[in-house]
């Protein structure tokens, strides 16, 4: 347990250090009107906090900086549930009238989050192998051009335009859409190809004249391979942080960002709610000098995505946690609306 004085000094030092990246000394704290303690008293309190391993003394000055243990105490005791962050309200305007392109929303979210924090944002989408088909559309673009659109239960949208034979008319397009939605909607994505090549093929062969070309294009849309999608932004943001002047450290971090499997392993199995891993709390060596903050957003009862921010341990935890809470809520609500439409 910390005394009220210790809590006040620790919180003030961390808030100041996050802003300035400079060690904090007792003389500077004594000038803070909110503290109202002598420099000598402050030095004693700082020594006690250092003994409790919440502060560290640098070699270059008499000031102190927070330790990883100090950041952990700060996160656990000084950050309460936050109010909705209005910086992300623009996401609510991304919905389209007919089709929700979740990927566009998520990519925009990653970009906004990295811009608002100056950290690296990674968003792990849901595993498409667990998804089911929600809807198929064939929309005429011109008299002889059609775009095939496939929408999954996770909000993933695949589309491809193609030219249809002159012999195929609007009625045949309508028949094709009806066959596809009747036979494929609700099926797991992994089972679509088999159903397409058996039931759907036979029905199209019987009811649609000159169907072969249309069938091949529809098949190409349905047979997409990506099961997990990663969205990243702000990869270079760490270069702006004063902690990262070590070329080897930067090289290893950038190499990590190029390894999709490593990132997926890092973010797979993340628990619901805000999770904060500081420095050595991270299992992966490349992020042991960093802080990783994650949150999940839900697309259905069994499907979710993960939002992650990676930055220095000298992170604006209060701001980041507020943004992640807000973004998780926004994405969950947006997808819930999309499923109801």
Characterization of this structure:
Helices cover 43% and strands 18% of the residues. The protein is an alpha+beta fold. It has a five-stranded antiparallel sheet, sandwiched between helices. The protein has a three-stranded antiparallel sheet with strand order 4-5-6, covered by helices on one side. A two-stranded antiparallel ribbon has the order 1-2. A hairpin with a 6-residue loop joins β1 and β2. α1 (4-20) packs across α3, α5 runs antiparallel to α11 (317-340) and α7 packs antiparallel against α8. The two termini are 51 Å apart. The relative contact order is 0.14. The model is unreliable at 95-99 (pLDDT under 50).
List the helices and strands and how they pair.
Blueprint: H1 4-20, H2 26-30, H3 39-51, E1 55-57, E2 64-66, H4 68-78, H5 102-117, E3 120-124, E4 133-140, E5 145-152, E6 157-163, H6 170-184, H7 192-207, H8 212-222, E7 230-233, H9 247-257, H10 260-267, E8 275-278, E9 290-298, E10 304-312, H11 317-340
Antiparallel strand pairs: 1-2, 3-7, 3-10, 4-5, 5-6, 8-9, 9-10
């Amino acid at each position: 347990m910390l005394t009220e004085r210790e809590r006040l000094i620790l919180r003030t030092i961390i808030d100041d250090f996050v802003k300035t990246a400079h060690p904090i000394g007792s003389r500077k704290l004594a000038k803070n009107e909110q503290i109202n303690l002598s420099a000598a008293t402050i030095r004693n309190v700082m020594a006690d906090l250092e003994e409790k391993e919440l502060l560290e003394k640098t070699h270059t000055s008499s000031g102190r900086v927070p330790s990883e243990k100090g950041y952990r105490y700060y996160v656990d005791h000084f950050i309460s549930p936050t109010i909705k962050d209005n910086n992300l309200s623009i996401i609510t305007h991304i919905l389209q009238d007919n089709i929700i392109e979740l990927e566009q929303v998520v990519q925009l979210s990653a970009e906004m989050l990295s811009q608002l924090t100056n950290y690296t944002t990674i968003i792990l989408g849901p595993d498409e192998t667990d998804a089911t088909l929600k809807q198929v559309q064939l929309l005429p673009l011109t008299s002889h051009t059609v775009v095939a659109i496939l929408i999954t239960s996770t909000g993933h949208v695949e589309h491809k335009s193609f030219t249809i034979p002159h012999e195929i008319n609007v009625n045949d397009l309508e028949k094709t859409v009806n066959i596809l939605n009747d036979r494929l909607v609700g099926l797991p994505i992994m089972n679509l190809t088999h159903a397409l090549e058996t039931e759907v093929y036979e029905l199209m062969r019987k009811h649609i004249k000159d169907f072969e070309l249309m069938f091949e294009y529809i098949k190409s849309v349905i047979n997409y391979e990506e099961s997990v999608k990663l969205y990243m932004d702000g990869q270079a943001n760490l270069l702006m942080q004063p902690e990262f002047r070590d070329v080897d450290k930067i090289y290893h971090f950038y190499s990590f960002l190029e390894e999709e499997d490593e990132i997926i392993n890092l973010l797979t199995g993340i628990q619901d709610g805000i999770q904060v891993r500081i420095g050595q709390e991270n299992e992966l060596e490349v992020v042991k000098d960093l802080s990783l903050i994650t949150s999940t957003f839900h697309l259905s009862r069994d499907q979710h995505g993960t939002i992650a921010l990676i930055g220095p341990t000298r992170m604006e935890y209060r701001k980041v946690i507020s943004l992640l809470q807000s973004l998780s809520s926004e994405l969950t609500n947006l997808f819930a609306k999309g499923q109801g439409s």
